[in-house]
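fyi for ur records
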Amino acid sequence: MGMAVGARKDGQVSDPNIVPLIDVLLVLIIIFLVITPKVPTGLPTLVPQPPPPQPKLELPDPHIVVVQVMPGGKLMINREPSDWNSIGARLSDIFKERADKVAFVEGADDVPFDQVARAIDIMRGVGIEHVGLITPATMSEE
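which gave:
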């Protein structure tokens, strides 16, 4: 603020009085400080939660056929031992009277894929229309 050094002959000073302006600004600052915390500051979010624990897999439904390819050339059909020579006839007997031709293949971690592919080929050869793959981690959580 400046200081008025001399007055005009009629005694009026034309300097604006800014004290009321400062009072209004202070009141506005106080109002905005009080209102600001009540304004939402962001969007509501949902934090991803870990998946619920899966129930342990038990012996599959008898209608589900799982062919397990084990290390060393061993085979199992629904946890019953089998071999490469009899797997085709056994699967043919299982699916002879079934309308749904669906089976699954599970290969162990250290089994070469050509053995898994061989099992899939035999399954497709006996008329199984849909062959699914099961990872070892899925079945080993029992």
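The helical segments are 19-35, 87-94, 113-125, 136-139. thats all i got for now
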